[in-house]
Amino acid sequence: MEQTHAVIYFHAKLVELAGVAIIVGGTLLSSGYFLREGVRGDWRQAYDRYRANLGRGILLGLELLVGADIMSTVTAPLPSVVCHFNSPVSDTIGSLFD
User: Fold this and answer.
1) Whole-angstrom distance, CA of residue 41 vs CA of residue 72
2) How open is the CA angle 10-54-61, to the nearest 5 degrees?
3) Is the overall model pTM greater than 0.85, yes or no?
4) What 3-state DSSP class applies to 94?
């Protein structure tokens, strides 16, 4: 199981890298298109398209980041849980009833 987690963890990191690259690339491309359309014509229409294109890039990148997080979380090994009854709190509560 540990080896499976290592393989999936590696792939999750690749998907995270792709998500960040898409967000950065989408921001740069959207900004370039905005400037080009704004200089050529109507700035208001260019701004509306800029917001739509920027939102698409961010949304796609975030979807990949969430997917990568799910991949690494699902395969993560569970920590072993040990209950200790001899704690300072239980000693204090026990001494109340003596």
Assistant:
1) 47
2) 10
3) no
4) helix
Q: How far is the first Cα of the chain from the last one, in angstroms, to the nearest whole number? A: 48
Per-residue pLDDT tens digits for 41-94: 899 999 999 999 999 999 999 999 999 999 988 887 777 655 555 556 555 555
User: Taking a C-beta distance cutoff of 8 angstroms, is the pair 42, 70 a contact?
Assistant: no
What is d(CA 50, CA 35) in angstroms, rounded to the nearest whole number? Answer: 9
Calculate ∠ Cα 78-79-83, nearest 5°: 130
Distance from C-alpha of 32 to C-alpha of 14, rounded to nearest angstrom: 27
Given a contact cutoff of 8 angstroms between Cβ atoms, the answer to whether 43 and 78 are in contact is: no
Q: How far apart are CA 73 and CA 58, in angstroms?
A: 22
Strand ranges inside the chain, DSSP E: none
